[in-house]
Amino acid sequence: MKLKQLPEDFLVDEQAEFTPDPAGKFFVYELDKTSISTLEAMQQLARNAGLKIRDLSPAGLKDKHASTRQLFSATAALRPETGDPRLKIRFVGKAAAPLTAACITGNAFRLVVRCLRDVDARRLAANAEVVKRVGLPNYYDDQRFGGNAHGQGFIGRALAQGNFEEAVRLHLAAPHRKQNLTDKQNRRLARDLWGNWAELHQRMRKSPERALVEFLRDHPGQWVECFERITPPLRNMFVAAYQSLLFNETLARFVAASGLPVAAQENRGGSIPMHCDAPTEVLARWRELRFPLPGPETRLADCPEAAPHLQAVLEQQGIMLPDLRLAGLQRTRFMAAERAILLFPKDLNLAAPEADDLNPGRLKVALTFSLPRGSFATMVVKRLAADCGSAG
Asked: Final residue of a domain: which of 208, 234, 260?
């Protein structure tokens, strides 16, 4: 099975609302982007307009390897020419405040799943009927774990453990294959010259990371101050990634302990069991449950179903809830929240299988559905592809 073989195989249309205000100070644009992340798009648009990235505020973050449509706001009017063929913008109005995730009501998806055998196509169709009835666990998927320093560790965990040097190192010195050449070269240099700030600064190419090395050159050992010089969207992403891992691990333990038949899937965060079926009384309870996105204010007593599993996850991670207060940091924090544990895709529909034009001898299937803000279409596909015939 192949997903995102072409950018147009993964179409996302953000469903967002904002209150137009002709006298507002913020300019709202619709952005169409292809094969570029939202943060990279904001950086490009800001450079093109002579603005700073903090002057642009997207309502949400969308997949890089996809074709997506979303809203963002800017503190100044932008030229229609973006300077990048992957980006198109259209002015849609003005607003009194910058856009935030609160503006998003959901996302509509049209996906094409490719390279299917007959048995795979039949499984997708059969599982779709089950998902309509019993839903799937509302896990975060790989896109959320960009802060995992690419297999080397979560920056958020290093922060919770008070190891601020490690947090900075994971940001500056962890190259990975999806970075552009400049970023890879800079991070390889940082890995090899860690601590030799003067030489590292001299050899690095201009980038936000080089500015952090310049700070360390002039202020060696000031890890807290260095970390908090990282742009806020990235710092927030690091925290959110680790918070999402803690949620996933808690939910995975809960599902595994439920006694229901499950099928195991994997993502960058670890093993994620999916329930294959559930009786009505269990579904009724699960529909009401919301598990913590942990923060220092989280009270385990407020969610007894999650409490033993979250406690086990925290012990495994070597941290406690008070550690999420991030003592010493002023502008980086974990904010406690909650998330529904069950997800029901709205208007889930699978088209009939067709011959796959990119993979001779195989089939492709188009599917459409909508999800609430913060839920992952790729997780729906993983559940549809799960082999529940051998579960249990």
From this structure: 234
42 occurs within a structural domain: yes
CATH number of domain containing 163: 1.10.1510
Cβ-based neighbour number of residue 60 at 10 Å: 20
The rounded distance, in Å, linking the Cα atoms of 200 and 191 is: 10
- Point out the domain boundary residue: 190, 205, 234: 234
- Is the pTM higher than 0.85? yes
Half-sphere exposure of 348 (CA within 13 A, CB side): 22
Is the distance from CB of 128 to CB of 384 less than 8 angstroms?
yes
Q: Are residues 160 and 217 in the same domain?
A: yes
Residues with Cβ within 8 Å of 183's Cβ and at least 6 positions away in sequence, in order, are 175, 207, 209
Contact predicate 188/175, CB 8 Å? yes
Are 61 and 37 in contact by the 8 Å Cβ rule? The answer is: yes
Q: How far is CA 185 from CA 175, 201, 207, 271, in A?
A: 8, 13, 11, 32
Helices (H) then strands (E): counts for the chain = 12, 16
The answer to whether position 384 is within a domain reads yes
Q: Which domain holds residue 40?
A: 19-98
287, part of any domain: no
User: Do 3 and 114 fall into the same domain?
Assistant: yes
pLDDT tens-place string over residues 372-382: 999 999 999 99
Structural domains counted in the chain: 3
Alpha carbon distance 253, 140 (integer Å):
15
pLDDT tens by residue, 179-215? 677 888 999 999 999 999 999 999 999 988 999 999 9
Q: Are residues 87 and 63 in the same domain?
A: yes
The reported pLDDT for the residue numbered 362 is 98
In a domain, 55, yes or no: yes
Q: What residues contact residue 192 under an 8 Å CB cut-off, 6+ apart?
A: none
CB 361 within 8 A of CB 196: no
State pLDDT tens for residues 136-170.
Answer: 999 999 888 864 655 678 999 999 999 999 999 99
Q: Are 186 and 205 in contact (CB under 8 A)?
A: yes
Structure tokens at 41: 């798009």
